[in-house]
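re: that complex we talked abt at group meeting.

here r the seqs, copy pasted straight from the sheet so there may be weird spacing, ignore it
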Amino acid sequence: MAYPKQFRYTKEHEWVDAKDGNARIGITDYAQHELGDVVFVELPPAGKQLASGKTFGSVESVKAVSDIYAPVSGEVIEANAALQNKPELINTDPHGEGWLVKAKLANPAELNSLMDAAAYDAYIAEKQKEASA
Amino acid sequence: MPVEYPSSGGLMAEHKAVRGGVGLFDVSHMGDIRIHSAKKPGGALEAVQYITMNDASRLAVGQAQYSAMLYPEGTFVDDVIVHRLGEDDYLLVINAGTREKDVNWVRENTRNFDCRVEDLSDAYTQLAIQGPRAVDVLGKLTDAPLDSIKSYWFTHGTVCGLPNTLIARTGYTGEDGFEIYIPSNVNTSEQVWNAVIKAGEELGIVPCGLGARNTLRLECKMALYEHEISDKINVWEAGLDRYCKMEKGEFIGRGALEKARAAGLKRTLVGLEMVDRGIARDGYRCLNEQGEEIGVVTSGSPSPTLCKNIALAYVPPAFSAIGSSVYVEIRSQKCRAQAVATPFYKRQRKAIAG
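got the structure back, here u go
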């Protein structure tokens, strides 16, 4: 799956799709592959503050729990309600229907410290090389 | 053995294949200890009786039983499957993680018996073919009359051209299935693995990993070492009473178990089903309604068959009655669960004709 060009990415495999001071946040295709079948998602309610680098929720597969780290600071506007009943959207459409939260950015400049698609691609390639070495 | 095989479609698909069709596990990491008599026949049986809790004297040649080796405290060295290979010849199949400890334990504690102990762990590759269609898959590869092998019995037959292969109707999934023991050299193992996959193709066989192995055994409340059983947990607490034959005579752990029985249970293994949203995981704390710690989750997972979040936990007996509320602390939240009947899943046995 191609990593959308307009997104920014973290080393913890979250993505941010920012526009006009607001952003959607999710986990990457690589992350959903590593997790396996997602069966449960825990997300913060609207109004909750996100602090860049701090956990704000969790995604669980059958085999494990993974914390989700906020890629940027801000305030949650909406959590993806569809994931309550269809957590598998994270597997089937991680960069689209499987988004986690929408947030109002506190400091849009934080985006500059994240990877673009090309850098994230290179980062993943390195990870996969390590794993198969 | 990987956690899951992406080529199979992952853990959930592997789990469902075993419940509804057939799956193949590479369980060659399991250890194998053979105990057979040296000079005087009967020495091996005496040794096996002394180091395991079930009654091996009840085994016919070709029969196997679930059992365990215990410490003098009545707690677990390991759980084992004891196979009676011959007149005075036994094969103990043990866990991978405890292999070295188990082998040493067997050697030390059988010294006073007239028997030989051999560690055959490296001699065998063990493959588990599991699921309602396992019999159809293995049937294509062997001349052994599989239909005549009952659950927890075994035979020797030719499998994929390998003569004298041990074929046991055992497993760790709660489904019908077989475990076969083949010579461990890489070429042979690969050849048999590939042959089983090919034979099972039309029945949708998939390779299955540790993840599915865990969810399958958890649904059937089968114990996992360092989870439901350990050197801190005794037989009564683990609820394995029916595999422990106190009347058979002396065995390691028996004295402590007698005392423990008289003293009464302080904790017991209970099956939980989450009522609130959330998944109980291994090691999470169990709480009472007031939020006080009362126990611990030993294994917890979503159940792919039941589509519920299930767990096994040690709690005081007062919380073990079906319907009792037990709370599990999940990321600082107190989430309600309730005690349910176990096993969580039990396969439908085929009706006996006539």
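couple things i noticed - The longest strand of chain A covers residues 55-61. The domain at 8-132 of chain A is CATH 2.40.50.100 (OB fold (Dihydrolipoamide Acetyltransferase, E2P)).
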